Amino acid sequence: MDIFALFTTRVIEALRADYPQLENELLARVVVEPPRDPAHGDLSTNAAMVVAKPLGKNPREVASGLVERFKSTPDVTSVEVAGPGFINFRLVDSIWHQVLRAVGAQGENFGRSDLGKNERVNVEFVSANPTGPMHVGHTRGAVFGDALASLMAWSGYDVTREYYINDTGGQTIILGQSAMLRYREALGETIDIPPGFYPGDYLVPVGKALASEYGRSLLDMPEQEAVLIAREAALAAMMELVKADLAQLNIHHDVFFSERTLHGQGGDIQSTLDWLRDEGMVYEGRLEPPKGKAPEEWEDREQTLFRATDYGDDTDRALIKSDGSYTYFAADIAYHRNKYLRGFKHMINVLGADHSGYVKRLQAAVKAVSQGEADIDVRICQLVRLLKNGEPFKMSKRSGDLVTLADVVDEVGADATRFMLLFRRNDASMDFDFALVKEQTRDNPVFYVQYAHARACSIFRTAERDMPGLDASPAALAGAELELLGSAADIELIRLLGAWPRTVAAATIAHEPHRIAFYVHELAGALHGFWAKGKDDPQLRFVNPSSPKLTLARLALVDAVRQVIRNGLGILGVSAPEELS
């Protein structure tokens, strides 16, 4: 039961009854949400301010008419106009009891919806160069992308998790050369790894595997041929390492797309370029040099350019370099056309902080190759600073100059890693304090939320111990007399539960899984606060042997809180333990 969606529908129906000329597009801007100050009521709507100007009326005049309509509604105790035209509602307690029953009835499905209408969405995330293990810079994007994919699936989208393998270009050649050095090392040579090569020990097994398979024969081959063999072995090994690293965070992709498949005669880049020419989206011309330093793709010459400015970009983009090879952007266009041709009209790309300049060009590419049918949202994950007790923290680096994903998970665990990286907006830089996430205090957000779930479970164990004759089975909870939950503390907690479906929907639409982390943290705080009140007021205790019916109703409330916390943590990919050591 989404109380906010229910009243949004009622408000829109009232507006349609009074003003049938209002268009659906305008009415879609009407929202019902919690008021900023809970003292103002249970619900608040902007409806009058949305429609007043098109109607040529004063917002308070429109609001007053709506108020008159809702005064006679049985489940509304009061309704009033506030400020410039907001309408605030106070609801009867029975509404909140219905919400609580809905949580109990729907259980793990409470908050799920068909918002996505089973439309296909491609969430591409991580997509790191397969030149080594995942490092901490990739970890935030990995966790964010996986949680966002789960959130979209929760809201009814058909989600595909995709990893774009950058398995072509100069960096892969350097990887092959680095693997060749480790191959020589495995044959007994003393090696010196030059600057710019990959120095990590993770290539040592690759060198040993090459030595085992080829003996000394690679040394007898032309260097270029040997490096290509070493590159293929290293790329395969690195992708297995990447998958293993991601698995430590329970992240698994559905599709691993090789960039190399786009290249070559008859590949997607060539066919996409031909299609762009046929559609008049490319031309031969010159680019003005950008202000400041020139990017790698700019060359002062006549060249093949994509009309990116026709699709919202700041400049047209080069597609072919002077040596005849394709630019990175040409591959990007072909790749996103490939996604579109695979049936994805919704695309989400999760990129690192150094890719913020890619947003407009990718949006232009998708708009062009889909002829406006598809959309893309590029989410940028900002940098993470590692701290311990507030000071910069240098961990042991087992992979050259990298702090790896595995290092972080080994230090604090998968749950803490995931929750803490999601407990902040993706586009804001953040500090990750290893000391904080190990504390068992309210200052540690992941502990605070998991402890709330464990506390809810312990309340049931307390009831079983102190009231052994009480039936607290799911069937008994479903039949509890929820009308007994009439205190301000009860209603406040149920009201927060009622916000869960709206929170999920809003987070889905905004592509912001941090809203889920914020919500479960707030819900955990509300449960802890209620428990503290019970220490002073016996009537607010969850387990009260002198009041079996009230206890059963409170257990229904605790069970609902437990369920919603578990639902939220499930979206985030974090466990909900029943006990904490």
Write the layout of secondary structure elements.
Elements: H1 3-18, H2 24-27, E1 32-33, E2 43-45, H3 47-55, H4 59-70, E3 76-82, E4 86-91, H5 93-106, E5 120-124, H6 136-154, E6 158-165, H7 170-186, H8 204-214, H9 217-220, H10 223-247, E7 255-258, H11 268-278, E8 282-285, E9 303-306, E10 317-318, H12 328-341, E11 346-352, H13 359-369, E12 375-381, E13 384-388, E14 391-392, H14 405-412, H15 414-422, E15 430-433, H16 445-466, H17 474-478, H18 488-498, H19 500-510, H20 514-536, H21 548-572
Parallel strand pairs: 5-6, 5-11, 6-7, 11-12, 13-15
Antiparallel strand pairs: 1-2, 2-4, 3-4, 8-9, 9-10, 13-14
How would you describe what is shown here?
This protein is of the alpha/beta class. The chain folds into three domains: 3-91, Arginyl tRNA synthetase N-terminal domain (Gyrase A, domain 2), CATH 3.30.1360; 121-277 and 326-436, Rossmann fold (3-Layer(aba) Sandwich); 441-572, Isoleucyl-tRNA Synthetase, Domain 1, CATH 1.10.730. It is 48% helix and 12% strand. Strands 7-6-5-11-12 form a five-stranded parallel β-sheet, with helices on both faces. Strands 1-2-4-3 form a four-stranded antiparallel β-sheet. The protein has a three-stranded antiparallel β-sheet with strand order 8-9-10. Strand 3 and strand 4 form a beta hairpin. Helix 3 (47-55) crosses helix 4 (59-70) and helix 6 crosses helix 15 (414-422).
CATH fold description of the largest domain: Rossmann fold
Instruction: Please give the domain count.
Output: 3
Look at the structure and give the mean pLDDT. Answer: 92
CATH superfamily of the largest domain: HUPs
Shape: flat
* Most strands sheet: 5 strands, parallel
Discrete helix count = 21
**Any idea what the radius of gyration is?**
29 Å
Number of separate strands: 15
User: Low-confidence runs (pLDDT<50, min 5 residues)?
Assistant: none
User: N- to C-terminal separation?
Assistant: 35 Å
Estimate the helix proportion, in percent.
40-55%
Relative strand content:
5-15%
Can you tell me the CATH class of the largest domain? Alpha Beta
CATH architecture of the largest domain: 3-Layer(aba) Sandwich
Which structural category fits the helices and strands?
alpha/beta
Numbering strands along the chain, what is their spatial order in the largest sheet? 7-6-5-11-12
InterPro entries: aa-tRNA-synth_I_CS (IPR001412), Arg-tRNA-ligase (IPR001278), Arg-tRNA-synth_N (IPR005148), Arg-tRNA-synth_N_sf (IPR036695), ArgRS_core (IPR035684), DALR_anticod-bd (IPR008909), Rossmann-like_a/b/a_fold (IPR014729), tRNAsynth_Ia_anticodon-bd (IPR009080)
Catalytic activity: tRNA(Arg) + L-arginine + ATP = L-arginyl-tRNA(Arg) + AMP + diphosphate
Organism: Devosia subaequoris
EC number: 6.1.1.19
